[in-house]
Specification:
By secondary structure, the protein is mainly alpha-helical. The protein folds into two domains: 93 residues, no CATH class; 82 residues, Orthogonal Bundle (Helicase, Ruva Protein, domain 3), CATH 1.10.8. It contains ten helices and two strands, in the order ααβαβααααααα. Helix 3 links the parallel strand 1 and strand 2. The N and C termini lie far apart (47 Å).
Length: 189
């Protein structure tokens, strides 16, 4: 159902059963020539519930009927129950698990910061300001992309609201990020 809402499929009514909805979703994705489907928060899929079983079946149907690559992202999926039971065994047998973590401080991190900075549309922001602060940003975020995204976005919003239209270290320092990043930053300072 969430796929149908995301795709804004207008023909979905309470009369439609899940097979109708799933077929409509596949049809729209196929017509759009979708070749990549990202599903976040997969660790929330509880295979111990009817809803979790149904979601698992829908995802299996989608992967069988679409010529798209499916990427599932989640936290601690090995211990979430995603790979337990009959359906979980099928999921585990059809997927490759990649462990991710914080970016290391280096060229990739600096490139990520530069890419995020390149998306800013602030009228007075000097190019490479954030890139020059990549080490500071690493200290503040522990190399976590979500923390960096929050920090840069919040600083950009602050720059718009205060009229400066430019992100500075001072603004970045005033922004609070997640507890884990804040704790690590305080411990390293």
């Amino acid at each position: 159902m969430e796929f149908a809402r995301f795709l804004n499929i207008p023909t979905i009514t309470p009369r439609h059963n899940t097979a109708d909805i799933t077929h409509s979703v596949c049809q729209v994705l196929a017509e759009a020539r979708t070749d990549l489907v990202l599903v976040d928060e997969i660790h929330l899929m509880n295979l111990g519930t009817i809803a979790g079983d149904e979601l698992s079946d829908h995802l299996k149907y989608f992967t069988a009927h679409l010529s798209a690559t499916f990427i599932y992202a989640g936290i601690d999926v090995e211990h979430s129950g995603l790979f337990t039971g009959i359906r979980g065994g099928q999921i585990a047998g059809r997927r490759t698990l990649l462990h991710t973590g914080p970016f290391p401080l280096g060229h990739e991190w600096e490139g990520l910061v530069a890419t995020m900075e390149g998306t800013l549309r602030l009228h007075r922001h000097a190019p490479n300001t954030l890139t020059k602060l990549h080490k500071y940003l690493y200290q503040r975020t522990g190399g976590m992309i979500g923390s960096l995204s929050h920090l840069v976005r919040a600083a950009a919003i602050s720059a718009i609201l205060d009229g400066s239209e430019s992100v500075t270290r001072r603004q970045l320092h005033a922004i609070h990020v997640d507890h884990a990043s804040e704790s690590a930053y305080r411990a390293s300072a």
